[in-house]
Amino acid sequence: MPVNADTPDDTTTDTTDDRTDDQNGLPCTPTRPRACPRPRTRPSAPLWVAMYHSVGDCSDDPYRITVSPGRLDRQLGWLHRRGLRGVSVTDLLAARARGEGQDLVGLTFDDGYADFADHALPVLRRWGFGATVFVLPGRLGGTNEWDPLGPRRPLLTADAVRRLADTEGLEIASHGLTHVDLALADDALLGAEVGGSRVLLSELTGREVQGLCYPYGTVDRRVADAVRAAGYGYACAIDPGPLTGVFALPRVHIGENDTSVRMLLKYRLNRLRRRPVPLPGAAPLPAPAPVPAPVPDADTVREVR
Fold first, then answer.
1. Which candidate, 251, 252, 255, places its Cα nearest to that of 68?
2. What's the DSSP call for residue 105?
3. Between β-strands 49-52 and 104-109, what pairing exists: parallel, antiparallel or unpaired?
4. How far apart are the first and last CA of the chain?
5. pLDDT surpasses 70 at 19
């Protein structure tokens, strides 16, 4: 049975219910607990959350994480023609929790590349779409030093992050501090990467940070529990395996080779393969609690020049 990363077990049977069995009209008794219907919250349909990274020159792209501005424009146009609209993950989850938003898809951009402001944002504005940008507050103004191959790509500066946070429809969320595999981190490093990054981004943007994206997409129960404890409202993975729920949201990688035909196939496969995400109640995500995790020292988090 899949592990639920964010909802309690509700599989116990209430044997004291005095309703009747819909199948045979007899009273519910301990000997017939399974025949008695019990009220359950109807789960949301599978979410569609697209995962982007860099938007720019694709000529040297060993990890296939870059899309050209023209390709991004055509992909968002494809969504628009199908009656779909891209939004941030927080807006998507809030709409689904209200029982709405079947025409919404989540758009996410990992790593906080500087080319988001130059190339992705104008395309998003053209189509009236929103998005979530996952940034690394411990590497602001630096480059993608975690990638051993490919070109060094500049990352957003602190000023650029502030400007994006003030842009309607955009959400700034955490990608950890420095892009480490959280599943391999010890407890101290995990707390700094998860809780510390949320503190810094909240201070930088003047807003409570709701979301986190797991670097490399890796997550396990310990990491998901740490993210929840740090006060986040959700977390994105890629393929979270047995975990499910708002702290293990699956996403679909979108790249330069994804034409309209491939987009259609990925969209349909997502609806076939993914389980509905159990949402926490029938209201938008609550405001996060204060973050208990320690803030890293200044040398760790200073902006890279």
1. 255
2. E
3. parallel
4. 48
5. no
| Bigger pLDDT: 297 vs 100 | 100
What is the residue type of 12? T
- pLDDT tens for 119-131 read 999 999 999 999 9
Query: How many CA atoms within 13 Å lie on the side-chain side of 36?
Result: 18
User: Shortest CA distance to 135 belongs to which of 95, 101, 99, 176?
Assistant: 176
Instruction: Please give the structure tokens belonging to residue 140.
Output: 């602001």
Domains and CATH numbers, the chain: 49-278 (3.20.20.370)
Query: What DSSP letter does each residue of 287-301 carry, written as one string?
Result: PPPPP-SPPPPHHHH
For the CA atoms of the chain, what is the radius of gyration? 21
Q: Report the DSSP beta bridge partners of residue 135.
A: 174
Please report, to the nearest 10 degrees, the dihedral formed by the alpha carbons of residues 96, 234, 3, 193 taken in order. 170
Decide: 233 and 246 in contact? Cβ < 8 Å: yes
- Give the residue carrying structure tokens 């503190």: 199
Indicate the SS3 state at residue 76.
helix
Give every CB contact of residue 154 below 8 A, 6+ residues apart in sequence: 113, 114, 115, 141, 142, 143
Model's pTM, two decimal places? 0.78
Q: 115 near 55, Cβ under 8 Å?
A: yes
Q: Give yes or no for a contact between 164 and 172, defined as CB atoms under 8 angstroms apart.
A: yes
pLDDT for the residue numbered 242: 85
The SS3 call for residue 243 is: strand
Phi-psi region of 213 (alpha: psi -120 to 50; beta: other; left: phi over 0): beta
pLDDT, tens digit (0-9, with 9 covering 90-100), for 241-284: 888 899 999 999 999 999 999 999 998 888 777 766 766 653 33
Are 49 and 90 within 8 A, CB to CB?
no
